[in-house]
TrEMBL record:
PANTHER family: CHEMOTAXIS PROTEIN MOTA (PTHR30433), MOTILITY PROTEIN A (PTHR30433:SF3). GO terms for cellular component: plasma membrane. One of its GO terms (biological process) is chemotaxis. The chain crosses the membrane at residues 29-48, 145-167, 179-200. Belongs to the exbB/tolQ family. This is Flagellar motor component.
Length: 258
């Protein structure tokens, strides 16, 4: 579970609720079922209209990724690549055939199999770069759906507010009901803004950020396979792959003894 997502939403809602209570309000009054029905499904449907069907499916298929920790372990992946490089250096690249067949990552399996089959390095690079581009486009489309839904929320909330005001103004002969109607109308605006900046917008940005981890992993795999194909020294290859790690990550070599 990615706690930054859960904590971000919980703290955002809590801070608003506390501020409302301190001003003498009641946060529960903002939870207006009619406003939620008007804003949330409409914004999602609007985003659906403006998104390619493939990416709409992708947005819901990859939704769980937003709340999970990144599936990428770069240190483990680099170690795996270097272990294979050591075997290839010692026993020849054909010794990697059984390792390629046992790969659980289809991208890695495809690239390593091509290298074992003797495919030219430039052909391996061209093939895998196409797969990387397609993967990047897939996650961009999926995250863009949620970002578009978030962008639509405030405007849909404004529509809900205007509809509520129209109904409220029809009750001029009953000031109490009109006031309640106006108050209810503005909950749609609150719902729209919250949907944009607490929920759907951040979901889209989080999915985009995590997809970058997946793309970076594939780039590391590609660089590793090319290095193995060229017969690079495992220590030198590791040094190159460690450059893909962020400044916050440990770049200690597995060849360095503790």
């Amino acid at each position: 579970m990615d706690l930054t997502v859960i904590l971000g939403m919980v703290i955002s809602i809590t801070s608003i609720a506390i501020g409302d209570i301190m001003e003498g309000g009641n946060p529960l009054h903002v939870l207006h079922i009619t406003s939620i029905i008007i804003v949330v499904p409409t914004a999602m449907a609007s985003a659906m209209t403006g998104t390619h069907p493939e990416y709409v499916r992708a947005a819901f298929k990859e939704f769980k990724m937003i709340f999970k920790k990144s599936p990428v372990n770069m240190h483990a992946r680099i170690k795996q690549i270097i272990d294979l490089a050591i075997i290839a250096r010692r026993d020849g690249i054909l010794a990697l055939e059984s390792h390629a067949n046992a790969m659980d990552d289809e991208f890695f399996k495809k690239g390593l199999s091509m290298a074992v089959d003797g495919t030219e390095a430039h052909e391996i690079e061209e093939t895998l770069e196409i797969l990387i581009e397609e993967t990047e486009e897939y996650y961009h489309g999926a995250s863009h759906y949620w970002l578009l839904a978030g962008e639509s929320c405030p405007v849909i909330g404004l529509i809900g507010a205007v509809l509520g005001l129209i109904l409220a103004l029809q009750k001029l002969d009953n000031p109490a009901e009109m006031a309640a109607g106006i108050a209810g109308a503005f909950t749609a605006t609150v719902t729209g803004i919250a949907g944009a900046y607490i929920f759907m917008g951040p979901w889209g940005n989080k999915l985009k950020a995590k997809s970058h981890d997946l793309i970076k992993e594939k780039k590391v795999i590609l660089a590793g396979i090319l290095g193995i194909s060229h017969g690079d020294n495992p220590r030198m290859l590791e040094g190159k792959l460690l450059n893909y790690l962020s400044p916050l990550e440990d770049k200690k070599s597995q060849f360095d003894k503790a």
